[in-house]
Amino acid sequence: MIAIEPASETQFDAKALRDIALAAGADDVGFVSIDNPALDDQRRDILEAFPFSRTLIAFVIRMSRDNIRSPARSVANLEFDQAADETNDVARKIAHALEGRGLRAGYPSMGFPMEAVRWPDKMWVIAHKPVAVAAGLGRMGIHRNVIHPKFGNFILLGTVAVGLDIETRDRPLDFNPCLECKLCVAACPTGAIAPDGYFDFTACYIHNYREFMGGFADWAETLADAKSARTYREKISDAETVSMWQSLAFGPNYKAAYCMAVCPAGSDVIGAYQADKRRYLKEIVDPLQRKAETIYVTAGSDAEDYVARRFPGKSLKRVNSTTRPTTIDGFLSSLRLAFQRGKSAGLNAVYHFNFTGAQKRAATIVIADRRIRVEQGLVGAPSLTVTADAETWLRFVGKETSLASALLRLKIRLRGDPRLFLAFGRCFPA
């Protein structure tokens, strides 16, 4: 193996790295040390993929705003696909330029492909958003998109890992460009973004990512279960089949990036909103709200209630979620994402879970005041205690075995009011 001599910091300071990234096509650049506390929860994965990492180059690619704002999803998704390819291309050019100068450099995909063998757990090598925030390229808005101070949220993010320490690194912005105008709240067709900042991950994921990962798996299972073409068409329309084909052939299609489309933040973007707010609403927000479209929800979810109440002109379609946890740790970590706070109204309970078998775990889940808290170990006095064989529990959660069967075989045992168990289930309909 040929040893690569490390480049000196005098040859490559922050300005030199910035110039390389801008020359490769980046619209803005920032730097983060691998030791930055903001990366504590992903440092291990980064070093596993790029063990030489010392500095992360974070960059943004600006997108065409009017494409993203278009009610025609083909137009919006064309820009997403083109910008995604450009982001990956820029990352590759940066890495090649650095390698040509004697530095080790690597980059993950902007979005796809990912480490699918980890599904449904964390699949990505680097989470670009926290890296970009730590590098001073923007702050998270209420809609969970990074807002660049100039380009707004009309950006895609890329990261390049470099085997070099540099003295000067960027710091997070000392202000948040988010206007808290709540237009993203008004435009979201599933109610995933609440006025108080609460985010319903499941509502966004089930609909917007219908033709990605879990939604595709649900479509594939529907196809597999169909006894004939006729029974398949009873569940999946021809338009849905064609749309899935388009996603497979040309790139996954987002169903609604409306939160991004309506966001007026950023110095290059805000002018039209400030000049005439009424016109901005009429031309950009209203067409997305009025659009006749199918909204995908899980039965019994907060999203189902929200769409029926807020957008009666849109069609509801119930679908299954196939984000089935395959480990007890995965189940416990997924609860915060799947929690439906609307369905938890009036519930104040402490649940003790004892998982037995190969995946022995003990956990406390507290649901109170429409909030959820998950803690390791058994904490406090329980309202209900659930003792379950771990493998049986995962099959039950994955709808592969019934609760009645598990109770009869003593694979799941309840101590306390069983109505609390039913109330627990209503908080996680997906």
UniProtKB/TrEMBL annotation:
**Classification via PROSITE patterns:** 4FE4S_FER_1, 4FE4S_FER_2
Q: Which Pfam families match?
A: SCP2
Name of the molecule in the record: SCP2 sterol-binding domain-containing protein
Report the superkingdom from the record: Bacteria
The record's listing under InterPro entries reads:
4Fe4S_Fe-S-bd, 4Fe4S_Fe_S_CS, Helical_ferredxn, SCP2_sterol-bd_dom, SCP2_sterol-bd_dom_sf
Upper taxonomic classification of the species? Bacteria, Pseudomonadati, Pseudomonadota, Alphaproteobacteria, Hyphomicrobiales
Coiled-coil regions listed? none
Using the record's annotation, list all stretches that form the 4Fe-4S ferredoxin-type domain: 169-198
Going by the UniProt record, its keywords in alphabetical order are: Iron, Iron-sulfur, Metal-binding
